Amino acid sequence: MTATVRERPERGPAPRRRAATDRALPADRVAALVARAAAGGAEPVTTHAPATGALVADLPQSSPADIDAAFERARAAQQQWARRPLAERVRVLARLHDLVLARQREILDILQTETGKARAHAFEEVADVAINARYYARTAKHHLRSHDRMGVLPGLTTAHEARRPVGVVVVISPWNYPLALSVSDALPALVAGNAVVSRPDNQTALTTLWAHELAEEAGLPADLWQVVLGRGRDVGAPLIERADFVDYTGSTATGRDIAAQASARLIGCSLELGGKNPMLVLADADPRKAADGAVRACYSSAGQLCESMERLYVHTDVYDEFVEAFLERVERIRLGAELSYDSDMGSLTFARQLDTVVTHVEDAVAKGATVLAGGRARPDLGPYFYEPTVLTDVTADMLVHREETFGPVVSLYRVDTDDEAVTQANDTAYGLNASVWTRDVGHGRRVAERIRAGAVNVNEGYTAAWASVQAPSGGLGDSGLGRRHGAEGILKYTNTQTVAVQRLLPIAPLPGMSDAVWARTMTAALWAFRRVGIK
Ligand code: NAD
Predict the structure, then answer these.
(1) Rounded distance, CA 194 to CA 77, Å?
(2) If exposure means fewest CB atoms within 10 Å of the residue's CB, which of 64, 133, 406, 530 is most exposed?
(3) Is the CB of residue 74 less than 8 Å from the CB of residue 171?
């Protein structure tokens, strides 16, 4: 079967093409941001704007000596910081919340320039940092509080449990949501009394360095947050060798490597990895609302979002209506990456992302899939633009059926029952996010409970669960280990310490008492305490 690609009008104005030496951002601002990196000892790397090809930055890279120095500064600063009153640490986050909202124009420009995404998708990242800063500013005291615990011999033994910072947390973040993923994970680590050494992806380093500048303005002590630069394969191992905890967001394959390195050192790690997320449109769903939601859920940041939907299971009762409404909306998506809100979907970020998208679509078409929308690269708009794409007739032998595309490609499947939808949704090694659409919220909740994923959104694609940061976020199976957000998102950066005090009598035979008498006495005491409640 050959691809059927619908004719459509041109979408949105093309971004101005530029020579690779044109500057995408003001040179003095780039220089000021780059100077904040703990780098310089290794060969620099040049980055370009994906949407236009313009030069973004010549980035110094971090050598092992740079990394050593960054850790030395971070450890010294952490000792001071952990002793500061929590209220003082909290104030930094509260100020950062205000500053990121007030200064959003510049970071939106930087985010769009470095990633090629549409401005609305860049704004999601600004909102994410504000939401997390506010949440941890308001709840750190509650999460980090100490607890009196029941002693082994109540009245004679008291126990006290406290939270201590782990020390220096390494945050290795990817390029697709660079502000959200490098900053929002650092905030709870910092407020818990840790230092942070961040390694942003080179492609999006300026975004993290901008946040670093803002954090200092918000009152974060110099040196507490270090930013090192380098390719993952060059700096990953040296960072993990020095870390007290590693927070990694990226692909499953790299996540496994990082887990192995962390386990060899017996340090904790948190891994937020890939997904092949399903959206279920149930028989009682409103097809138009579900179609609106599908557009938001499938094409944010051109599908380069770990939480985005790549599989749509639609009940046969609403299939035709849903597909018509969905395609109509997909056709209207305006492609472009101008520094304004005039486009709906931007460019892919790298040639390799475009290659994966092209490979998945070509493989699917060659094996019999039908392209209902999109299915074309758009070099007329920029080197890595690809149209929002909808496939059907997708079968299990196609790459797109099971592998994460991480691009603007979604496959449509018709299902006859909830059971079939749930079975197919769960037929994956991943378990990050899912979405269920229905007019009956109770029905939605019951279906959600049967889906094997760290988050399920009812009547939304991903933002409801993701942005409800009081609740944890993270994946099952190949989608990762550990959680961000909520209590788990801050407690993972702490160790517990128990201080127990024994009074009056030791927990040992009294002078002159034999071990046998001691054992009988203890047995009687344990019987007596058997009904004492432990909270
Ligand atoms: P990747 O694993 O190749 O790279 C991700 C980041 O890890 C890059 O910045 C890279 O430099 C770094 N890295 C690579 N090798 C490393 C190593 N040995 N040590 C330390 N760091 C190393 O993944 P990618 O293809 O660039 O990113 C997309 C993937 O990330 C997708 O699978 C996506 O689902 C996943 N992702 C997951 C989440 C989440 O929250 N679950 C968020 C964003 C992206």
Answers:
(1) 9
(2) 530
(3) no
> Which ligand 1 atom is the nearest neighbour of the CA of 174?
9
Q: Indicate which residues carry an active-site annotation.
A: 272
Residue 38 is given by DSSP the state S
* Closest ligand 1 atom to 250 CA: 30
Yes or no: say if 452 and 466 are a contact pair by the CB < 8 Å rule: no
Q: Quick: pLDDT tens for 22-80.
A: 778 999 999 999 999 999 999 999 999 999 999 999 999 999 999 999 999 999 999 99
Which protein residue has the closest C-alpha to ligand 1 atom 11? 232
Residue range 286-300, pLDDT digits in tens? 999 999 999 999 999
* Among 198, 227, 251, 428, residue to substitute to test ligand 1 (most atoms within 8 Å of Cβ): 251
Q: Ligand 1 site: residues with CB under 6 angstroms?
A: 172, 174-177, 181, 201, 231-233, 236, 249-251, 254, 257-258, 272-275, 306, 404, 406, 432, 475, 480
- Claim to verify: residue 106 and residue 246 sit in the same structural domain: yes
pLDDT tens readout for residues 1-24: 333 333 333 344 444 445 545 778
Same-domain pairing of 326 and 467: yes
Burial classification of residue 463, based on how many CB atoms lie within 10 Å of its CB (0-12 exposed, 13-18 middle, 19 or more buried): middle
**Residue percentage of the chain with pLDDT more than 70:** 96
* SS3 state of residue 238: helix
At residue 248, does pLDDT exceed 60?
Answer: yes
Within a domain: residue 194? yes
Compute the C-alpha angle 387/347/402, nearest 5°: 60
- Give the residue whose CA is nearest to atom 3 of ligand 1: 251
Q: Are residues 258 and 124 in the same domain?
A: yes
Q: What is the mean pLDDT of the chain?
A: 94
Helices (H), 35-103: 64-83, 86-102
Residue 374 in any domain: the answer is yes
Q: Which atom of ligand 1 is nearest to the CA of 484?
A: 40
The residue segments making up the domain with residue 353 are 277-473
Distance 37 CA to ligand 1 centre (A): 21
End-to-end CA distance of the chain: 65
